[in-house]
Amino acid sequence: MGTSRYRWEFQLLDGESAERFSTLAALEPLLAPWTRGIGVDGFRLIRVAEYTFRAHIADHWRHGNVFILGDAAHLTPPFIGQGMGAGLRDAHNLAWKLAGVLRGDLPASILDSYEDERKPHARAMIRLALLIGRLMTAGGEVGDALRRVVVPRLGLVPGIRRRVVDSSTPALHRSALIGRRRGPRSLAGTLCPNPTLPDGHRLDDVLGTGFALVTTVRLTPEQHTTVERRGATAYYAVPGSELAAWLRRGRTTTALVRPDRTVMATSRRTADLVSAVPNFGALRARR
Question: How far apart are the first and last CA of the chain?
């Protein structure tokens, strides 16, 4: 955890508790494989905690005008580090929809898409965390021996290293605000990247808080007017840029991106997406 902070996790055996390991002297036998040659006086103990992993999803995330999100909606083990991220994505998914409905830009039925989109995604991430947790902890001494032999060599397998460090998550399912996915490379339901642009700004800062078109096709003046009138932003991805490469990998030229940076739809016919930009101008005009 950085250059000077370390975190270790150990499974407590029957009859053990965190209090038993509340000093560096008690922890030294457990830490020895990683700290040989360094005395315990070279460390400062910050925190010792005992906790049980949970994997739960609430049956319903909405009752009338009441919504739940974050840990109230789902609990996940920490093995892939997506707990806080899932809560933030819940909030980002719901907040702009609520704003759009309250200001009259979006119909109230749009709020149903919150659970439709986020619940399957949260379930997929929890299942992945459980799988990784089993691979990390199951099997007793035999499992530990296999992990010591196999895990250090996984990076030698082509493609494994990229998958391990890749932080992408599954695409959101189709909903009222996500178009149908067309093939495994489709960008619909995935997150738009946030690269640093040639002028030093990040894409998120340029796109603002509304809908956006990211395209390798230059819009006509009339199309620009339509996009701006609806409160959206258009960004031209220059050839050779990271965004142009992203669109090319998705086999498209234009992506319609929502305020939560999820791709709503893609098309090679840019005019179709210009016409599909929702009117979200009321939110932007009243900031």
Answer: 38
